[in-house]
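Sanity check record (used in CI):
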Amino acid sequence: MQHTVLALFALAALLIPATYGGPEENEGVKYADRCEACKILATELQARLSETGRSHDVIELGYSVDDVKPKKRTEYRRSELRLLETLENVCERILEYNIHKERKDSTRFAKGMSQTFQTLHGLVDKGVKVDLGIPYELWDKPSAEITQMKTQCETLIERYEDVIEKVCLYERLEEKKQQDAKEEL
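Expected output for DUF3456 domain-containing protein:
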C-alpha cells in the first residue's frame, strides 16, 4: 500500500500545473512546488492510514426496517469509511509543519521548530529583544508557505479523490487475495 500511495501522488504531481516564482519570492516567501506538496501529502496520508490501520473494530453496513436480515459487517481498517475519514482530515496535519529556510531541498518543510526559530526563542528566553517585524505571538503560527501547502493538499485530494479510492480499493483486494491464499495453505 505504501509504495502504491507514493506512486499515485508522484503521478499526480506530474499532472498538476507547475507553480512559478512570483513577487512573493522577492519578499522571502517560496511556496512549495507541486512535487514538495505531493510528497508531504503522500507522507501524511501514509502515516494516517498506518495509524488507523491498527484498529480491529468491526462496523455494520446497511440498514433494515425489521432487522430480520443481518447487516453486512466489515473491518474498519478495510472499509471505505476509513479512507474517507483519512482523506477528510489529512490536510490539517500539514499545519503541524514549519518552514526550515536554512534547508534548500524538500526537507525545508518538516515538523518541528527550525534551527533559526530555536535560536530566536532561546535569545528571547534569555531576555534579548528580538524584532522580526511580526508579533511574538505569531512566531509559532503556520507561515504563508505552510498555509499555501495545505491549500495545495486540498486541491490534490479534490482532483484525485476517485483515483485514490480506486488505488486503495485495489490494495484491499490484493491484500484479501494474499490473506485467502495463506488460509488455503
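Residues 2-184 form one domain. If this sentence no longer matches the regenerated C-alpha cells, the check is flagged for review.
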